[in-house]
Known about the structure:
This protein is mostly helical.
Amino acid sequence: xxxxxxxxxxxxxxxxxxxxxxxxxxxxxxxxxxxxxxxxxxxxxxxxxxxxxxxxxxxxx
Length: 61
């Protein structure tokens, strides 16, 4: 049996008003959108030209 927790939109908006925690990357097109979004937000990700690390991150950004 799977347990489900429903989250009200108001509760979600407190922590993630843009609902980006539900952004899904399943294709190259999705990855391109994610990279554009990251650049717009000023977020770094593994492989970004400003990322000097040579190992993958251990947590999602």
